[in-house]
Amino acid sequence: MPAPSFLLRALAAACALAGGLRAQNVLPAVPVALDSAADLKPLTGNWQLAGGVAGNPRRDKVLAAAPGTGVLVCNPTKEQRGHLFTAWEHGDIELELEFLLSPGSNSGVYLQGRYEVQLFDSWGVRTPKAADCGGIYRRWDAARGKGNELFDGHAPLANAARAPGLWQKLQIEFEAPRFDATGKKTANARFRKVVLNGFTIHENVEISGPTRSSAFNDEQPLGPIMIQGDHGPVAIRRLAAKRFATGARVEVADLKFRLYPGAYGSVGGSYEKEKPKAEGVPETFSLAGAGASGRFAVVFTGTLKVPKSGDYRFAIESGSSGRLLIGGRPVVLPIDKGSQPGIVTLAAGTHEFRLDLAHGSNARPAFELVAEGPGLAPHTLTAGTGPARARGAANRRTLLVEPADRTLLQRGFVPFEPRKRLYAAAIGTPAGVHFAYDFETGAVLHAWRGSFVDTFQMWDGRGSDQTAKPAGPLLTFQGKPTVGLIEYAANGDWPTQPETFWTPQGYTLEADGTPVFKASLYELTVSDRLAPAAGPFLERTLTLGGKLPSWSTWVLLAEADRIVPQPDGTGWVVGDRAWYLDWPADAAHRPVLRTVNGRQQLAVPLAGSTLAKPIRYSIVW
Q1: What residues make up the domain containing 148?
Q2: Interatomic CA distance for residues 297 and 307, integer angstroms
Q3: Which of 110, 210, 411, 417 shows the greatest Cβ crowding within 10 Å of its Cβ?
């Protein structure tokens, strides 16, 4: 029997990483110190500084605080039920935080102490409402009459909530209400975007006034962040913010352009040596101003006036190759059919710039130059340039596939960093619990709830991406082969590529459409079945047969920086309280927790005596 090609697998993995990963330059939010009077008003007795959450927050109604700092744990009582307030106030803001809820718990994040994004244990809710997790809570007006007091709430686009006891991430882009010189409100507050656990649940939602249970009934240009502390247990960590000055922006002046018609394809090409076909001073910083259409290269020059010294982020949003130089230094770098955003430190004042754009296809050309800086919200410096800035859900085209009365299997490329998986499928169930599966590795790539898949990139004009994109909030796994041969059982790392003699053998469909995936490794046969169980989670059953290889053979259950047993002995908590792996108490197999290269792997060593027994466990998130 030939030895597994460990060296070839490592080399292939390195090449995939080198070719697929790009650094993303983002101006970081400023952390809010949870133990500092400069950031928070004095805590009431229901809030406790902690190093984490102890006990069993999946089951316990009261959250136990672990010693240390970095986390605030709230357990309201009849006597102590105060809210958490920042010591500072804000107008426009980008806010991010992580939260953890006990079963059935309820809290909320109030922008300016007035406009609430709900925190609620909504695990398993099929159709979320404004009162569910991530909802923008309703307003209250007793004058509307009994039964009609609540109004103007906004349900999340999907239920992106995780199970109780897991850490969840909330990101909010908020625009404060606007007022004229007399104090009259001229524009309502607006949630530009709300993202829960990586999924956008609100875009461009206008709020007519303070929501119910707000700290203030009026509206003002500024107000503090408030986190509700009187409804139920909640833990908060990694609170951070970008606060923006209203109206502050980078200004463009002295604008000129040079236009070079032709299929140049990339910036810095042969057009540099040619005489431009057109040049001049455009009225606006746009392709329309330069008269650019078809295939071309265009060069804009001018000055940027920045109001404050500090770090600035610039991005060219376009399907064309783009580059930005400021003061002769490259800031935005070109890549194939686009560009890489960049961050540069600038002094307050005026700086010369040059922007190159090369459009080498017959698609409609469009671009925007977006800037962000200290106290400056992201804003566009260009005008009238087409759809590059059209990000709203109403402008996004989709082709949704939804399972109705049976399970659906949709073949297609599956997005998965650092490269999309080409021999894969998305499986959707009428229970609203879905997953993506890779035939090459026998691995579960993603699991999600809500809508099934968006096939726009597959079917609209035979889209170039050819991806069946999951349409709900994702839980993403490590994507490594499920079955591996471990050269050194004690410390050999898990393979990143399938074994040489791993052979996918398709799948069979049960009566309701549930697939059972088939594969073999030498003489070992594998049947892999995943389906919703008695709750909003997946149950996986691996049935093994035949003969084991002579190499040490293992089944990978989970890999993360940290995997710890659940306190009640029902399985493990995977990652930084990211998901639960539930394990039957009467299972024939005994998983082993391995630590290799700083990562933990929960795996089952296969033995002939237990080979006839299936491996069964649940994925709960």
Answers
A1: 30-244
A2: 31
A3: 110
Pairwise CA distance, residues 15 & 459, whole Å: 30
pLDDT of residue 463: 57
Closest to 203 measured CA to CA, from 215, 190, 193: 193
**Kind of pairing between the strands at 571-574 and 592-596:** unpaired
- How are strands ordered across the β-sheet holding 400-401? 400-401, 453-454, 469-470
Please name the residues in contact with 360: beta carbons below 8 A apart, sequence gap of 6 or more. Answer: 263, 264, 265, 266, 295, 320, 321
- Residue 363 in tokens: 């698609």
Domain count, the chain: 3
Cis peptide before 418 (omega within 30 of 0): yes
Same domain, 236 and 295: no
CA 238 vs. chain centroid, Å, equals 16
Answer yes or no: are the C-beta atoms of 544 and 524 closer than 8 Å: yes
Structure tokens at 295: 């295939």
Give the separation between CA 125 and CA 450, rounded to whole angstroms: 9
For the chain, the straight-line distance linking the first and the last C-alpha, in angstroms and rounded, comes to 40
Q: What was the pLDDT predicted at 337?
A: 82
**Count of other CB atoms within 10 angstroms of residue 253:** 9
- The CATH number linked to 332 is 3.90.182.10
Do the domain assignments include residue 183? Answer: yes
Provide the token pair at 62.
């009261």
Find how far residue 329's CA is from the centre of its chain: 32
In sequence order, the 6+-apart residues with CB closer than 8 A to the CB of 89 are 112, 222, 223, 224
Q: Give the model's pLDDT for residue 459.
A: 82
Q: Which positions of the chain have pLDDT values less than 70?
A: 1-24, 384-396, 461-464, 489-490
Q: pTM for the complete prediction?
A: 0.91
Please check whether residues 169 and 278 belong to one and the same domain: no
pLDDT at 39: 97
442: left (phi > 0), else alpha (psi -120 to 50), else beta? left
- The string of pLDDT tens digits covering residues 174-195 is 999 999 999 999 999 999 999 9
Rounded CA separation 157/294 (Å) = 38
Confidence at residue 291, expressed as pLDDT on a 0 to 100 scale: 84
CATH number where 512 lies: 2.70.98
Q: Residues 206, 329: one domain? A: no
